[in-house]
Design brief:
It is elongated, with a radius of gyration of 15 Å. It is mostly helical and 69 residues long. It has one domain. It is 77% helix and 0% strand.
Length: 69
């Protein structure tokens, strides 16, 4: 994992990681919604399950590092 050069402290690094995890979870949830609208419900359920896992990973990362929501 490559960090930007300006990120120096552990808190700043955790903020960057949390932002990336949240963005990936949101994009995955959006993709699941698009798939559901497109008419592929079984694939949408699998994508929604993946999005739920990523959202849980994001929440647990923030909780573990004492970050607010």
């Amino acid at each position: 994992m490559v960090q930007p050069a300006l990120v120096s402290s552990l808190v700043q690094r955790n903020k960057v990681v949390a932002k990336r995890k949240g963005a990936i979870a949101a994009v995955t949830a959006g993709g699941a919604a698009v798939i559901a609208v497109a008419g592929a419900p079984f694939v949408a359920v699998a994508a929604a399950a993946g999005a739920a896992y990523l959202a849980w990973d994001w929440f647990s990362f923030r909780r573990k590092n004492g970050m607010r929501f």
